[in-house]
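Chain A, query sequence.
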Amino acid sequence: MAEKVTVSSLLAQDYAIAGTSAPASGGAGLFLRKGAKLYFCFVSETRQSATVSTEYCKPVE
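Chain A, predicted structure.
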């Protein structure tokens, strides 16, 4: 089974944050880029959470 793609896993592969967004529904969107490859990641947190968690990351085509 493939490992879940997260912000941390992309940063470990030398992706860099290329931009951010603030969805009206809450949370935050991060664009991570390495060369011609671009991912969009949605992250969120709660008052009780110890970290901001990656909900999902998807490649942008």
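The longest strand covers residues 37-44. The two ends are 24 Å apart (CA to CA).
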